[in-house]
Write a structure and sequence with these properties.
This protein is an alpha/beta fold. It has helices at 22-30, 67-79, 98-107, 120-127, 158-163, 177-186, 216-219, 257-269, 288-298, 310-322, 340-347, 362-370, 390-397, 417-426, 435-447, 452-457, 465-473, 487-500; strands at residues 7-11, 33-36, 52-55, 84-88, 112-115, 141-145, 167-171, 194-199, 207-212, 227-231, 250-253, 273-276, 281-284, 304-307, 334-337, 378-384, 401-411, 429-432, 459-462, 477-481. The strands form four sheets. A five-stranded parallel beta sheet has the order 3-2-4-1-5, with helices on both faces. A five-stranded mixed beta sheet has the order 6-7-10-8-9, covered by helices on one side. It has a five-stranded parallel beta sheet with strand order 12-11-18-19-20, sandwiched between helices. Helix 5 (158-163) links the parallel strand 6 (141-145) and strand 7. Helix 15 packs parallel to helix 17 (465-473). The chain is elongated, with a radius of gyration of 28 Å. Bound molecules: S-adenosyl-L-homocysteine. The site of S-adenosyl-L-homocysteine has 24 residues, from helix 4 and strand 10.
């Protein structure tokens, strides 16, 4: 049997995936198996590429997976010699039963290491602008669980808690907040003590409600867990939270999942709630036409290669690799890229784009290529099957011998039902990064029974005029078009729109 590796109990932080520690992120990257909780941000699991992901999230009160089961799973995986990460919300040792897991592992002879995390006990207050111990008002903070009796060592002495002074932080207390507030007041805490309830702290869905403790259960009735309650004299000292520029905006990202990560990350960082709903999927072709084109490229047949998207670069590169070819296939070839992002995809492979037009459109690319002497030059136009004829026709008219090779098809994938429901209920904006994302969106909406009115009420922000024209042709309303035809340009357009419409578009 292999020696067991230490099991890492990793704190995931309070909610925002970026609040994990560097050590925690590193542990996830090296993990073979990750056992995770309901409270850990799903984005963190993306760090554990290739690892087996086991959801042991116990919804409060559900009996689906017991603590013994979790302990046993940890032990079994560790005994196989795997790198096991137990990812827990907040800090692993602040409630949440990390201590029990550590003991069970130790008893089984398996080493344990803890990577602390940012606990919501203090982060929830901080994210609401409250310093738990502002020395002008409090010199103690008492952190208490509200789920009294659930295997806790001793019943909570609410009388003592009410009389420590300073600030009280209640966790796992939302379901019994009425009862707890009454007990604290009975024990002598003033009914007027300032209090705040913070739901889903540090996420775009964060909500904060403040009221005197006697009124908080009623005032904050609309909140739902996870909620942390902060009670005490530092609550009124809270500084106002500066809203992020896209706070409250629910934005649909229609790019294929594989390319959406940076865009989603940026939109989230700006405060928006992102609804990922890929409306296109790339299906590379592996047919004789692609084979022949790649072989001609490697044989030095072409003078120019023109690439009109990141997908084009990716699929052409994969086709080369598939045939054990590499960047040398481009030796002596002038490379034209439609825009910066396509050029960047090339440079990631060590290829420099010789021609990048100032405006990132087929027309601008045609203009730039026509400025070269194209008479009798052989051009490989490597792109999607459904590409527009503009580029091919203009290059042919300029005397070039164009091979327009379909590297991939763009299809409409089946939509994720949750994302679709969110789009229908609450989306403010849909981002469109190509004409095909617009067409895909409309296909999805039609296939799932949306009517014209629903289409009409969707506001699109488009990466450029070509996508905007396609969106309008599909019956979508275009709220804004980027000035610079890149994802960053598109996000700038969203920011501009949000600043002009502080209370939203619908
Ligand atoms: N180990 C975790 C706490 C687990 S107990 C930590 O250190 O944060 C679960 C409780 O944590 C919830 O009932 C709630 O009170 C609190 N909590 C967790 N995430 C939260 C969040 N994003 N916002 C507010 N409270 C949160």
């Amino acid at each position: 049997m292999p020696d067991p590796q230490p099991v890492l109990l990793v704190g995931a932080g309070p909610g925002d995936p970026r609040l994990i520690t560097l050590a925690g992120a590193d542990a996830l990257r090296r993990a073979d198996v990750v056992l995770y909780d309901r409270l850990a941000a799903p984005e963190l699991l993306d760090l554990a590429a290739g690892a087996e992901l086991i959801d042991v999230g116990k919804a409060p009160r559900s009996q689906t997976i017991t603590q013994d089961n979790i302990n046993q799973l940890l032990i079994n995986h560790a005994r196989r010699g795997q790198h096991v990460v137990r990812l827990k919300g907040g800090d692993p040792f602040v409630f949440g039963r990390g201590g029990e897991e550590a003991s069970a592992l130790t008893a089984a002879g398996i080493p344990v290491r803890v990577i602390p995390g940012v606990t919501s006990a203090t982060a929830a207050a901080a994210a609401a602008g409250i310093a738990v111990t502002d020395r002008r008002a409090a010199s103690a903070v008492t952190i208490v669980t509200g789920s009294d009796g659930d295997g806790t060592a001793e019943p909570i002495d609410w009388h003592a808690v009410a009389n420590v002074g300073g600030v009280i932080v209640l966790m796992m207390a939302w379901r019994s907040i009425e009862d707890i507030a009454a007990r604290l007041i009975d024990a002598g805490l003033s009914a007027q003590t300032p209090a705040a309830a913070i739901e889903r702290a540090t996420t775009p869905q964060q909500r904060v409600i403040t009221a005197p403790i006697a009124e908080l259960p009623e005032s904050a009735r609309s909140l739902s867990p996870p909620v942390t309650v902060v009670i005490g004299p530092t609550v009124p000292l809270a500084h106002p939270i500066a809203d992020l520029p896209l706070a409250g905006w629910r934005i649909v990202v229609t790019r294929p999942a594989a390319q959406a990560a940076t865009m989603i990350e940026r939109l989230r960082t700006l405060g928006s709630i992102v609804i990922p709903l890929p409306t296109i999927e790339i299906r590379p072709r592996q047919d004789a036409a692609v084979d022949a084109a790649v072989q001609r490229l490697a044989d030095g047949h072409y003078h120019y290669v023109a690439l009109t998207s990141v997908n084009g670069v990716d699929t052409l590169w994969n086709a080369l690799e598939h045939r054990q070819l590499d960047a040398r296939a481009f030796a002596g070839v002038r490379i034209a890229a439609i825009g910066n992002e396509t050029a960047r995809a090339l440079s990631r492979r060590g290829l420099h784009a010789d021609i990048v037009p100032a405006a990132f459109t087929s027309t601008a690319l045609s203009d730039r290529l026509e400025a070269e002497d194209l008479a009798d030059k052989r051009v490989l136009l490597a792109r999607a099957a459904q590409g527009s004829p503009v580029l091919r026709d203009r290059l042919s008219d300029a005397g070039a011998r164009v091979d327009d090779v379909a590297l991939y098809d763009t299809i409409t994938p089946p939509p994720d039902p949750d994302a679709l429901a969110e789009l229908r209920a609450a989306a403010n904006l849909v981002t469109l990064t190509s004409p095909s994302t617009a067409q895909g969106l409309v296909n999805i909406l039609r296939d799932t029974g949306s009517d014209a009115a629903q289409l009409d009420s969707l506001q699109a922000v488009c990466i450029g005029p070509v996508s905007a024209a396609a969106a309008r042709q599909c019956g979508l309303s275009v709220a804004a078009v980027a000035d610079v035809y890149t994802v960053d340009g598109l996000i700038d357009a969203v920011l501009q729109l949000a600043s002009e419409h502080p209370s939203g578009l619908r």
